[in-house]
Amino acid sequence: MDEEVDPGEENVNSVLAQESSELFQILSSQSSAVIKDLLQRMPSRACESVDATGSTAAELAKAMLEYLTVASNAECCSFVQSMCILCENMPMRLESRLMSVAGYADHENSTSIHSVTKEESSWPHPEEQQLMKRPRIDHWGEYIAAVVHLMRRRWQRLSEGLVKEVHLETVWISPRPANRGRDRPDQTPGQADRVSRTPEPDGDFGSPESRVTLDSFLQGCAGKVTVVVGLAGSGKTLLTSCLGQQWAHGLGPIPLSYLFVLLEFRQLNLLSGPLSLSELLFRHYLPPNGGDDAKRAIVDYLLSNPEQSCWVLDGYDEFHDRVSRQEAQGEPLSPENPLPVADLVSGLLSRQLLPGCTVLITCRTRDVMDLDATSDKVGQLLGWDCPDIKDFVENFFGVKGDSANKGLGQKAADLLLSNQHLLAMSYLPALCNICCICLKHLLQEDNEQSREEEEERGRETRRKPPEKGPKAGGGVPAAGGRRRRGKNEEDMDWTNSRAQPSHTQIPSTLTQVYFTVLDAFLSRDHEKQGIHDKAKATKHPLSSVCKQTTLSRYQSEICELAELAWRGLEESKILFLKENIPDNVLEFSIRTGLLSQVELRLDDGFPAKAYCFIHLTIQEFLAAVRIMSSDDVTDSQLKKRFSLKTRWMTKSDHRTVFTDSLHLYVCGLASEQCTPALVQFARASGRAGLQSWVQKRQALVLKLLKSLCHNNLTGPKILELCHCVQESQDQQLAKETVGARSALELRNIRLLPKDIDAVAFVVNSVGDNGIGLDFRACSMELECLDVLQRCRYIHHLSFRSRKYDDKFAEKLSSILSDFPLLRKLEFCGASLTATGAASLASALEKCLHLTDVNLSDNSLKDDGIKLIADVVTKLPRLESVMFSRNNSSLQAVDYLIGKMSSHVNIQSVHADGMKEFTITFHQSSDMECHKKKTQPTVSLVNQKWTKPEIQKVGKSLARCPALSVLDLSGDQWDEDILETLTQLLPKVNVTNKILLNGSCSSVEDLVVLTALLSHCPAVVELHIRLQSDPDPVQVSVVYPGGSKKPANTKALCLSFCGLLHNDLEPVWRSLRTSCDLTVLDLSSNSLGNKGLKKVLDVLPRLSNIQEINVSNNGISMEGVATLASALSSSNNFTEINISKEGRGRVILKFCSDRRDDKQQLKMFRMSDSSLLPSDVNILCRKLANCGSSHLKLDLSHNALKVETIKSLLRVLPKMVSLQTLNVSNSIVSLPEALTMVDCLTVSQCITSVELRPQGECFIHFDRARAEQAKCRFTHFSLNGDDMERLIEVLLQGPQLSVLDLSSNQLTDDGVKCLMDSLPKLKITSFVSLSNSTLTQQGLLDVANTLCTCDDVSAVEVSLGVERKCLIWFSQHGGWEKSLSVRESGLEQEHLVRLSEIVSHCPTLTKLQFRNNSLQPEWTEDFVKGLNVGERGCHVSIEESWMRGEKAVGLVCRCLQLSSNIHTIRVHSSTLHVSLMKSSGLTSVSLVDCALEGRHLSPLTDIIHKCPLLTELDFSHSSLGTEGTRSLCSVLPSLPKLTSLSVVSKQMCSVSVVEELSEALLRSAAVQRLNLSGHVISDTAARNITAVFPRLRALNLSHCSWSAAEGLQLGRCVHLEELCLDSVHLDEKSRECLAETLRNIRSIRSLKLNKIAAVVGSSETSGALDLLASMEGLTRLEEIELDGWRMSDRGVEQLSSRLLPCWTELRKIRLAENLIDDQSGDRLLEALIGCSHLQELYLGSNRIGDLTAARMTLVLPLLTHITVLDISLNVIGSEGSVSLSKAILCMKNLTKIHLTSVGTPELCPVAASLRHCPLLQEVSLGWNNCGDDVVLELARVLPFCLKMTRIDLESNCVTVSGVEALLRVLQSCPALQIIRLWRNKVSPSEAHMLSLKDKRLNFSSTGC
User: Fold this and answer.
1) pLDDT, tens digit, 9 for 90 and up, residues 1139-1165
2) DSSP string computed for 1749-1779
3) What does DSSP assign to residue 547?
4) Which of 417, 1302, 1362, 1511 could form a disulfide with 1358 if both were Cys (CB 3.0 to 4.6 A apart)?
5) Coil, helix or strand for 1815?
């Protein structure tokens, strides 16, 4: 059938004979009606010989065919025509052949032949059928013949350039299941998809494990949709043409009778408008010859017989549209309706068009998802393997080259197979052809260069004189001659090329390969090369293969071609019409072979010429050249194109026709080696600065790559990044790629040698740090391992896949020793057996640095494990080996346990059944060092033990060294095995514990195990728990090394064992002589009261018992009473802890010391119980017999009713040993609380009562009668009647020191009731009514107590958020009283009432109002209405509006309305008024209140009228020139003005100070002057100097003046106070200051902080001179020298010469100096003479523990110390202890600052604060203190009632510590804030805690 058959040469008889067998099958399958009709159409004589009634269809068919063998030609033709019309399912090939030989039969002939019966047939008349079917068949056959001719011609054109013949039988394909119906709604690859079916990348070639030939794959494809997947260049288009050629010759899987339609999507892209199926077929595929009739006939036949057509759609990846995804066949589409091409293709695939036709579609892998819903079969073309490649290369050089170059084949093949880039390309046929062109070009150049070198050597030889000697053999040319090389000699050279040195340099990157390919194609242009062929070519540095001269010669053409490539890339176009390509570029491209011609039909159906690049990668490479060499491509376009592709394609990915290799070429072009070539290309544009622009573009690419190095990438993208970095050849990028990752995870992808080569480039940059490689479920050939050994710096290697078998392991073993840094090896989830283990074991023996080996989930079995075990025990650094899930048995376990006796490096053996199996080892370094080595452990869990097995393993264990843990858990043993085990265990050396979980199930088993306590003295604890569902039985035998209990503890725990009271006797017998038992746990059994009695009876035998737990044993109140009696009668019985009336927790504690003379503290705790009055009566009467012991009775968390409490109160007086009664969370309601508070009247020994609902409730007792008691009755709801009852109880009770009624929702009536009774209650400390519902009326009632109660000393009320109400008492009375009202929203009438209270209370001398929303008029009236007594009164009012002009107005009005104002001051927004009857105004101050000069005018008028004024202070204001003049105008009118302060807030004009200085000259009385912060001009300096002689106080801090004139401080002869803080003193000023200090002996206060003259890197002579000048200041009381940086010399001078003279010193500041322990010791020693010292500041120095130790001796002697600051020093834990000893004696201490002192161990210091009753402020921040310090503070706070502030910021305090503080805050009413910023408290926790008490401050600002 290879040749066409001429129908005219055949006759119908011969054809029937040839096709008889197939006709028999067809006729046999027809219906009876068809057979009957055919019989009727046969001649009558034939019908007579056939019995139609009883014969089958097969018999009738046979009879008809037998008759036709002898029938005439006319009869045969007539029968054949009828048969073709009537028969169904006749192949088109057979029907066409039969009809072609049967011809037409006229009506007459046919009627004469056929015998028509009288019965009319139901079938159409044969003549009618012939009229409509015969013409169609003829046109159909003619059209098929035309297609045959088309396919043959197409193949002839394509096969002209083929190097190797193409046969479908030699093309391999990997079938894979179609995914019909697996479409997910999302567009990303799900985890299930990645596990079940790994999407193949463009770089993957399918799975070679299961492969078939393409011919076999296509068998049975008829009527189906078949998808063939392949990469660009894999030959899909060629194979479809080959398929068409085979069809045209009647071969292959497609029958010749089918219509073969081959359409290319690249051509379909040109069809813009809609078209019908016939238009697609006839206009754009092959038009028929018969005109419209032929078209109609062909279409009609096609529609009637769609199954007889095969549609081959090639290159779906190049299609611009997407086909619609329809899984099920939808509504049929009309073939006559015009539709878009995509819809036509979708209709074919979804069976909406031509249902039943055969469809074959080719595409790339990433596009196969579009076809999932419609495809029936999917197969992936496999790439060539190495033999295929080598065969192609040899054919290429044998076919393409001439006979002289056939020797190149072998060398080219060797070069190609040795280069990963060329080899990777060559897996694809198209690229393999390009590689061969490249290699041929390289080898020819190499040959030419070798020839030139040989000629050069010959010329040099001829220049030398001939050497004497024997003449060379024949063939040596004469002198001056040149030997001509023959053809055979050239062949000899090529054949022996491997024996000769080669100059061929193979490109090292893919980019360099394509540069070489470009050079090879350019070398084909013989026209332009001309005379340049002989020119010397300068090798280009990028790869030593691309000639720079070639680039310069073709730079313009290449640039234009690159522009075409880029334009196509942007437009997703690979076909370019002739008119779209410049003529010169087209001519050049065809001449060089870079473009190839493609024939296609345009939209109008006419043929046109188009061109495409020889491969898509060539187009992408040239586009990359365009990107990197043309500024037409912007940076943003580059960034848009630059992204890593992933091998996991998603449905949302942008479709592109290209191979996504553009970014690789861009990265390769970013290499420095490519810069000259890019400059050559860029030169074609003619712009300046080419090299810098190119380098900038390259830098941009490298920057993009660098950013990707630090991203979190998937495995495919990591691999792609490695390829990019390899292309760039940038070692720094490679380092950053691996530097950002501990391992490269490559999972679920197919790896090729080129991928491993890229990984090796990156990995080898990491150096000795090493990196891991994780190959999980990756497919790779063994050749990949050859490349993997180039990775020299791998420290972790992991292989996980069933594909990795013994062969893979054997190959891996050959390279393992090549990894010098390998630490961890994983070969898991593979198919490794003992055979592979043998190879692996031999390799592991050489890997001396291995630390971890994981061989889990293989098939090693016992033999394989033993092989590995014999080797790994020799590896010195090995840490662990895993053998899990390897089908092993206990023999392997026992083998390894036996190894422990001879290999001391084994740390542990763990086997969980036959699943988990792990060995760990000691590191050699640990064994060699002097540290204590950890003892080994053995874990054999979930094993199925038999007695022989346990005995065998027991013997092995007995030979082992001391084991830390032995775990035999997991299996239920019988009593016999348990007894065997108890006999074996004493022989096994265990130090920590033995675990036997799940081993026993009954009480009998328990008794057997209990014997271990007596059989094995080393056992210290035995824990058994039989009832532990769903967990297994818990059994552990503990040795001393594993016990967490104190030493000398011996414990038996038998909880949850179902023990009855009768079971205790066997247990006691099993214990035998174990009387040293200290802990007995029998909890959660069923012992009952009887069992409890047996436990108490056995107590005499348990002489060392410390604790017995009999919880959850069904004990009743009867048993509880028995325990109470035992507690009272037994000396060593110390504590009982019971819950739920005995049914719950029952824990008994004992002490071993039985001395009767020792008072013991006994505890009876009973909680979570419903106690009846009788129960309480019985228990308390029994507990009353405790004798001399102290008793704590804890009845917390119970439900105590009123009657029960009354019963308790009746028995309390009899309980003389009772120390504490705890009823926390037992007082639920107010009636119970009021009943309980009656205890104050029942017992005179009560010291405190604390009651709150559902909270902590304690009653404390003292054996002696208490003089005072504290009563805290909080968080109830007290109404008037309840308050009266409470007051009645309190009046009958003892004297109270504290009465806390806070948080009781008290109303004004309740408060009024209490205030009326307050004088009778005799309270000595304070009353708290905070968190009550007071109004302003209640506030007035509380304030009125200042008048009605003489002992009330202060009242503090806040009705705002704080809701604070405190009444303070003084025991002696007559003290000055104070009233503080804050945030209370006072109205004018309230102020009137308060002024009346002040008037009626002459001792009320201090009023404070803060943020009460007072109006200015109300304030004025309040000040006016105050009637002060002889003592006067100080009033402070703070309001936010009190600033600027309003503040000045308020001051003026107050001065006008009240003549009793002695001093008035506004500071910030607070008014301070001092009232004194008939004293006159002496001081006016407006400080930091936004005062401006224009505000002073009304005030100056009043000041003029105040002749007694002695002080003016306008500091931190903006007076300006206007204000200064106003001030200066009043100064002369104030004859008694002695103090003037004008501190500058901002830089003022020089004239301001000058005017002030002139005014000072006229104010002769001024003696105290403060001009801080001003710039003093020379004029002002002279004026100020003039007033110095009369000054007694001068403050010039932060001032500056010129050095020329300066201030003559020497004229200050009467100074008592001098402040020069932060003043810059030059040498002259310093000498002047020193001279002044020597002359002035009257100074009492000297502040020289941070003066610039002495601040420096070290101590200066200036500082020493200034210190020396202070020797005469014997009256000094205050000295401040912060920031002087004094070290030993300065401190020595201060200590030895100055401090002994300063006997009146009260304050000294020496912060920010260089005082260390040595100088600090001398300083403190000197301070002993300063007996009046009150404040000591030593912060920011270097003092440590020695100085703190000296403080222990010195500070107790300084009894007046109130402030101590030693922050920012280096005190350690010892210094903390020393400091605490000093604090114990500092009774007057009010402030202590220990911020950042260098140690968190400040518990001793916190504890010592208890002895400082006047303490107000504590700073412990920035010390990393933990909860221990805070807990100590919480214990101290109740004793520091004056504490106002605690700073704990930046420590390590947790919620527990803060909650401890919260609990004691109710005892600290004066405390205002606790700073807790930067501690270990989350924001949400901080918010919840601050809601409970606002004083807990977690803010960074302290607000």
Assistant:
1) 999 999 999 999 876 554 456 788 999
2) HHHHHHGGG-TT--EEE--SS---HHHHHHH
3) B
4) 1362
5) coil
